[in-house]
Amino acid sequence: MGNASSLKHHVETAEKTGVIQLSKSNLREIPKDLGQISHLLRTLDLNTNRLVQIGDNISAFKNLKLLNLSHNKLKYVSASIGNLTKLETLILEDNLLEALPNELERLASLKTLNLSSNKFKIFPRQVCTLKNLELVDLSRNEIEFIPDQVSQSQASEINLNQNKLRSLNDSLVQCQKLKILRLDNNMLEVTAITKPILADSKICLLSVENNLFTLKQLQERDGYEQYSERYTSTKRKLI
After folding, report:
1. pLDDT digits (tens, 9 = 90+) for 117-154
2. Domains in the chain, please, with CATH?
3. By the 8 A CB rule, do 41 and 11 touch?
4. pTM for the whole thing?
5. How far is CA 202 from the centre of its chain?
6. Which of 27, 68, 140, 179 fits as disulfide partner to 49, beta carbons 3.0 to 4.6 Å?
7. Does the keyword Repeat apply (predicted)?
8. Residue 143: in which H helix or E strand, if any?
9. How far, in Å, CA of 141 to CA of 143, rounded?
10. Is the Cβ–Cβ distance between 111 and 134 less than 8 Å?
11. HSE-CB for 130 with a 13 A CA cutoff
């Protein structure tokens, strides 16, 4: 922060609004002064700072609905984040994360999870069991495969653009709410797009630009006709 008086002003405002925004404040840790109003906050925005970890003190912010920690230098998120059971939006974009704590599974209210532009090499299984999750963004990571646990996912949209995927997992067929799957800019051969995924899944928007096959090759795959029918039907509903 620039100075103590500036932080005091932010705290006084947050007491009335439930929102505190401390982006671009050169912070290396969550200011201790926020502890006195932690129970009042609904939104905590600490994007674009120099945070390297989120420690156990995050558990004090138990009424948060939105937590923005994007554009920091995070390598570690404490298990205490699992205490934020009212959290609906968690933004961890553009950090240095390679893994998530198992306690993330306790975020029963979470609807949006942004993990793009990190260092994940493995699809984090913790996101698969979040019952109210609608959108998970894992774009711009280094993910090479999708685990079987994805079958438990309740998300309607999964973004895996710009990863290192060479194969998919037919367990995606069991994702009953999955409508949008983004796979642009990976390393997929057309054989990775299997008949079960095309014919039997609920996916109605499959985005696969800039992989190792052409649209014509995809259209020739078994099951593409069924996928095309779902895509067209959904498009008509939006008109």
Report:
1. 999 999 999 999 999 999 999 999 999 999 999 999 99
2. 1-80 (3.80.10.10), 111-238 (3.80.10.10)
3. no
4. 0.94
5. 20
6. 27
7. yes
8. none
9. 6
10. yes
11. 30
